[in-house]
């Protein structure tokens, strides 16, 4: 049961953190470059350098969010287990 709860917590944290990180990344991109982030429907209008930088940096942010959300879920489950055992 604990594994199922941990997986559910990981998914919930990942979705929430991914949404927040995506919005923060888009805002940062706009502030740094002065342009909107490239999207799929504008792919032909974006030069290759800009598309590569966007892709690499957004992938790095996504990977970091995934790792941190998994660690956060594990820490949250450990806290829940500890609280449950104290009661």
UniProtKB/TrEMBL annotation:
InterPro entries named in the record: DUF4235 (IPR025329)
Organism: Nesterenkonia sedimenti
Pfam families: DUF4235
Superkingdom classification of source: Bacteria
Name of this chain's protein: DUF4235 domain-containing protein
């Amino acid at each position: 049961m604990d594994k199922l709860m941990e997986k559910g917590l990981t998914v919930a944290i990942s979705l929430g953190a991914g949404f927040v990180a995506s919005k923060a990344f888009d805002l940062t991109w706009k502030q740094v470059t002065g342009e909107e982030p490239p999207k799929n429907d504008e792919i032909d209008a974006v030069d290759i350098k800009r598309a590569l930088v966007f892709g690499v940096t957004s992938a790095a942010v996504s990977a970091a969010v995934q790792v941190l959300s998994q660690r956060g879920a594990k820490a949250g489950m450990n806290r829940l287990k500890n609280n449950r055992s104290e009661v």
